[in-house]
Amino acid sequence: xxxxxxxxxxxxxxxxxxxxxxxxxxxxxxxxxxxxxxxxxxxxxxxxxxxxxxxxxxxxxxxxxxxxxxxxxxxxxxxxxxxxxxxxxxxxxxxxxxxxxxxxxxxxxxxxxxxxxxxxxxxxxxxxxxxxxxxxxxxxxxxxxxxxxxxxxxxxxxxxxxxxxxxxxxxxxxxxxxxxxxxxxxxxxxxxxxxxxxxxxxxxxxxxxxxxxxxxxxxxxxxxxxxxxxxxxxxxxxxxxxxxxxxxxxxxxxxxxxxxxxxxxxxxxxxxxxxxxxxxxxxxxxxxxxxxxxxxxxxxxxxxxxxxxxxxxxxxxxxxxxxxxxxxxxxxxxxxxxxxxxxxxxxxxxxxxxxxxxxxxxxxxxxxxxxxxxxxxxxxxxxxxxxxxxxxxxxxxxxxxxxxxxxxxxxxxxxxxxxxxxxxxxxxxxxxxxxxxxxxxxxxxxxxxxxxxxxxxxxxxxxxxxxxxxxxxxxxxxxxxxxxxxx
Length: 487
Ligand SMILES: [Zn+2]
Fold this sequence. Notes:
487 residues; ATP-binding; 7-stranded mixed β-sheet; BirA Bifunctional Protein, domain 2; alpha+beta; 5-stranded mixed β-sheet; Translation Initiation Factor IF3; Rossmann fold; Proline--tRNA ligase; 37% helix; binds zinc ion; Pro-tRNA_ligase_II_C
């Protein structure tokens, strides 16, 4: 059937990862490209948005359980606000989209479409914080931001407008701000590991790659199957630089005026890109049951003489599953054969399929099929609600194990420039090397391979030996650098 071929994925994940990824996103019904003339923008379809909502709910409840409240700020930022923090302007200026007119009238002051909101949130935090009793202050907003980068569109990975959350906090002390920074980083790691079935590496960005003005930028990095790293969420300790630029001060217990210590942290729909990229295959989308909009599809398989019995039975099984809180779809379409249905639901990423034919009806059983590897198991129909939860756990464990194996196999060591280049060129993944901390020692890797230092682990003091020298320049090493190509 030609329609079946149209439906299926034609690109290979292994050989054409970029094209394959785009095909999965489109054909699984997650997104469309934006209108002509608006390259870099995408339309997120309901099935794609449902995934984002699941991420949102999970993170939002973590935030709220740890003292964060949501707020909303304007999407436009006066130019003079951006200029108050020179580092930010230098960091973002070429990527900022500007509004110059309101209706027919030219604006007196240009308005930036927010590339991030520190410069509009900070002045209000300055108004809200007076005394140490107002601290800590924690606000988060769910919104979109715009960065006008002229690169090829890659849905959820590279788009000019993207959805994210940005949290902004102010604290009395440097250490409290550090605790906050790490709390958010840990929550991002939990999101990946417990909801998205993706193991991540936690670490800090090298000083030359931290957020402009930040004391420290921390990151969770996820390895994609094509050997590239995704910066999967960042949490910044901003020190007092923003507080000083925007007058976020408080009177301490001795009535002395002090600058607050601030943080900001963000996670975008890149998490969705990482999810799709990590688990999906040449049949289409693969999703962990934790996040799948439909966790189970029930497909009845009948002949004319068994149709009524099979459909009744399938209906009951689907009802039982729904009653026990499972997100279930019964595909009883007359006009499609079971093979077509299997392909379609595989393409859409439903993690578990239940097949019901005359044999299952007769034996009071169901056949359960795992999407990631096609494993097929016969199970009793009784207690199907409980049984299916065990299968969800198994499917999740399979996905996590595969991603973890890829990560474990992809961290390699090197101690010279040639070795770093050779290993990265041949295998991708991460190459660990002792590093002196100087940006100039990243160049000889960045130049030929477009790979960079994506992170340094936190426990450098323990991992970098006294006698270790920088793999590039031979000076004393102070950090362990993870080199990788990245998104
Ligand atoms: Zn060096």
